[in-house]
Design goal:
Its cofactor is Zn(2+). InterPro entries: P-loop_NTPase, SEC_C_motif, SecA, SecA_CS, SecA_motor_DEAD, SecA_SF2_C, SecA_Wing/Scaffold, SecA_Wing/Scaffold_sf. Helix content is about 50%, strand content about 5%. The protein has 18 helices and ten strands. The chain is elongated, with a radius of gyration of 38 Å.
Length: about 550
């Protein structure tokens, strides 16, 4: 719930799908919003502001002055000090006294200078806050502040520390209860006098880019049926006026008006509000565009965080490990077997790359004899599963699950950090695509999706390399000895078909990485009515619309 969302209703509905429903005020609004006063220069404007404050202060009317920055509030404070006007400055530098200053800003003769962001959320009571006044008088009479901690409420153990403390507290409470009715009566009488003077006067020294912030300042007056007034003082030197003021207005004021005279017209005030509306629409479009870019990262973040939650929650990761194994093998086949024609395959490159993942017992001849990429996939996956089961027998299922959990979480975190940096780099220059007649948002979505896919494939590849080469040095307290992911490459493959111990981490037992003797393989017998010859990236023949490799091909 907010009192200033109506000016942003269109953006809230169109961008965030949030409806804005105005609720009638509990009591009739009595505040008078006077037209803006526009001066030629900022010096003339602040001079008029000080004069207005001096005149109303002499009558006793409480005044709240709003500025757009700490520097402007301090400048105005110095000018008021020169005129002998006692005042309080509320500019987010006095955190401990902020509530006290705002609570007493409605007393007779009070002048409070505040920035737009300070003091919101606290009602300014006409006549003052009686509870705070009574508390301050109790403290002024010499009562120890410790007995008034947390509004006279102390933890039970402290209440029993000493009878003298309890006695002092009872005395303070009694004095507080004695003074409270007196201050209530005093504040009520002051409130009546202030209402007769017109209530709280809110004076804005400059218009903000957003009408919402101006309305928040105005809303300090006229609360709960109290009278009040508000007015903004502007100059042609203000940021908003320099951007949107017409040349005609500047020409007229420069030729016909002296510095200390102002233009006051509802037509000019409406023109300024239209300028604010233009700025709001521009800023809204910027936020909407940023949100569209953020949606791409948000969807990717959901996928990564879901997988991390599965890891951290202790879920069985065997299925995830098998998915990574299949993804790594699939990416290798797509890289080295780019078509269904076997004479175009890089058989030597595939065989060599496989040995960087595990001590593969697959010869180049076996790969070349395969009739399709699906047959190559079956051949490689069978060898991968055989070696994975061998690792499970060597390390033990429980130890392997623990290693998989640690390795998977580490790889995901590392790759995700790198991906975020790459996406930031992409976003920095994505708007330049417009020069090539391309939609930057579409290019961001397309390339972001491709980079995310590459990251997920990299996670699978790194995971397989780690798990297939990890060595447990101490059986009692497993310590994982693995190679840095970025250092594995086809150059690490030795002539005998396995990764050298020195390059795979230094302490790896070569006997565990040595290739086993090739067992004679039986030819794969396939039903002539199945879809085994279907390319893995082609649509599944079942008509589901999904790729064959993630549909019926996933069970092959």
């Amino acid at each position: 719930m907010t009192g200033t969302a109506q000016t942003e209703a269109a953006e809230l509905v169109n961008t965030y799908d949030l409806q804005v429903v105005p609720i009638p005020t509990n009591r009739a609004m009595l505040r008078v919003d006077e037209p803006d006063l526009i001066y030629k220069s900022e010096v003339a404007k602040f001079g008029a502001v000080v004069e207005d404050i001096v005149q109303r202060h002499a009558l006793g009317q409480p005044i709240l002055v709003g500025t757009i920055s700490v520097e402007k509030s301090e400048y105005l404070s110095r000018e008021l000090t020169k005129r002998g006007i006692r005042h309080e400055v509320l500019n987010a530098k006095q955190h401990t006294r902020e509530a006290q200053i705002v609570a007493q800003a409605g007393r007779i003769g009070a002048v409070t200078v505040a920035t737009n962001m300070a003091g919101r959320g606290v009602d300014i009571l006409l006549g003052g806050n009686p509870e705070l006044l009574a508390r301050q008088q109790v403290l002024a009479e010499g009562v120890d502040p410790s007995v008034l901690v947390d509004e006279f409420a102390l933890p039970a153990p402290l209440e029993k520390l000493h009878e003298d403390f309890q006695a002092a507290r009872r005395a303070a409470l009694a004095r507080y209860e004695e003074l409270l009715p007196i201050h209530k009566q005093q504040c009520a009488e002051e409130g009546a006098k202030i209402r007769a003077l017109g209530g709280l006067y809110v004076l804005g020294t400059e218009r903000h880019d957003s009408r919402r912030i101006d309305n928040q300042l105005r809303g300090r007056a006229g609360r709960q049926g109290d009278p009040g007034a508000s007015r903004f003082y502007l100059s042609l030197d203000d940021e908003l006026m320099r951007l949107f003021a017409t040349g005609a207005l500047s020409w007229v004021m420069g030729r016909t008006l002296p510095d200390d005279e102002a233009i006051e017209a509802k037509m000019v005030t409406k023109a300024i509000e239209r300028a604010q509306s233009t700025v709001e629409q521009r800023n809204g479009e910027i936020r909407k565009n940023v949100l569209k870019y953020d949606e791409v990262m948000n969807e990717q973040r959901k996928v990564i965080y879901m997988r991390r939650d599965q890891i951290l929650s202790g879920a069985d990761l065997n299925a995830a490990a098998m998915e990574y194994l299949a993804e790594a093998v699939d990416s290798l086949i797509e890289t080295y077997c780019v078509s269904e024609a076997s004479d175009e395959w890089d058989v030597e490159g595939l065989a060599q790359e496989l040995r960087t993942y595990w001590p593969a017992a697959i010869s180049e001849a076996q790969i070349a004899q395969s009739l399709s990429t699906n047959a190559v996939y079956d051949l490689v996956m069978a060898d991968a599963h055989r070696h994975y089961k061998q690792r499970e027998e060597e390390l033990g299922s429980e130890t392997l699950r623990q290693i998989e959990r640690q390795v998977m979480l580490s790889i995901i975190d590392q790759r995700w950090r790198e991906h975020l940096e790459e996406m930031d780099y992409l976003q920095e220059g994505i708007n330049l695509r417009a020069m090539g007649q391309k939609d930057p948002l579409t290019e961001w979505q397309r390339e972001g999706f491709e980079m995310f896919g590459e990251m997920m494939t990299g996670i699978a590849q790194d995971f397989v390399r780690y798990v297939m080469h990890v060595q447990v040095i101490n059986e009692d307290q497993p310590a994982v000895q693995v190679q840095n992911l970025t250092e594995f490459s086809s150059d690490d493959v030795e002539s005998d078909g396995f990764v050298s111990a020195a390059r795979a981490g230094g302490d790896v037992d070569p006997a565990l990485l040595a290739p086993e003797e090739e067992a004679p393989r039986q030819p794969v017998v396939k039903d002539v009515n199945d879809w085994s010859n279907t390319p893995r990236n082609a649509p599944c023949p079942c008509g589901s619309g999904r790729k064959y490799k993630v549909c019926h091909g996933s069970a092959a």
